[in-house]
Amino acid sequence: MEHLALALFNDNPDFGMWVFLSVGAVALFVIFLPAVNWIDARRKEREAFYKAETLRRITESSSEGAKAAVEMLREQNRLERIKKREGVKVGGLINIGVGIALIIFLRVLIGAHEENSPYLVGLIPGFIGIAMLIYVYFLAAPIE
After folding, report:
1. Secondary structure of residue 22 in the 3-state scheme
2. Whole-angstrom Cα distance, residue 125 to residue 98?
3. What secondary structure letter does DSSP report for 131?
4. Is the pLDDT of residue 8 over 70?
5. Is the C-alpha dihedral spanning 20, 26, 27, 29 positive or negative?
6. CA 26, 27, 31, 33 torsion: positive or negative?
7. pTM of this prediction?
8. Cβ–Cβ under 8 Å, residues 99 and 124
9. Which of the four, 17, 90, 99, 116, has the lowest number of CB atoms within 10 Å?
10. How far is CA 90 from CA 86, 125, 136, 144, in A?
């Protein structure tokens, strides 16, 4: 077994870099990403617990507190929907921009004289962006 390891390291000087990158990739996907996901889940759980606890204490304090808690929940829900809708708008505009830039880039790079027009690939993200904007402005439920 020792002669095999020595043969690998002596014959290929880049083998050490390959091993380093392989171990780094495995460590990233096996250790780091699950740990970050777990920490984020714990944070979200803690935030939800504190929010629920605060609302419970407000509702137990008085009848006015209950009304205020319900109103606060409605307002938070409305603000979350507005934020999501604005995110879809920005995503749609970014997709349209990427599509236009891709069309221009491929047309300049390859030229418009080719029979097969690869620059039309830019229409794919452009149409996705248009579909996102159509959804936001015409199909999504109105925000109250």
Report:
1. helix
2. 7
3. H
4. no
5. positive
6. negative
7. 0.59
8. yes
9. 116
10. 6, 14, 11, 21
Which tokens hold the place of 55?
Answer: 């609302």
Residue 48 tokens, joined: 């939800």
Beta carbons within 10 angstroms of residue 93's beta carbon: 13
In the chain, the amino acid numbered 12 is: N
Residue 62's identity, in one-letter code, is S
At 138, the amino acid letter reads: F
Each residue's pLDDT tens digit, 95-104: 999 999 998 9
Angle, nearest 10°, between helix axes 63-110 and 123-134?
Answer: 160
What sign has the CA pseudo-torsion 62, 66, 71, 76?
positive
Record the tokens describing residue 101, joined without a space.
């830039």
- Packing angle between helix 33-61 and helix 63-110, nearest 10 degrees? 150
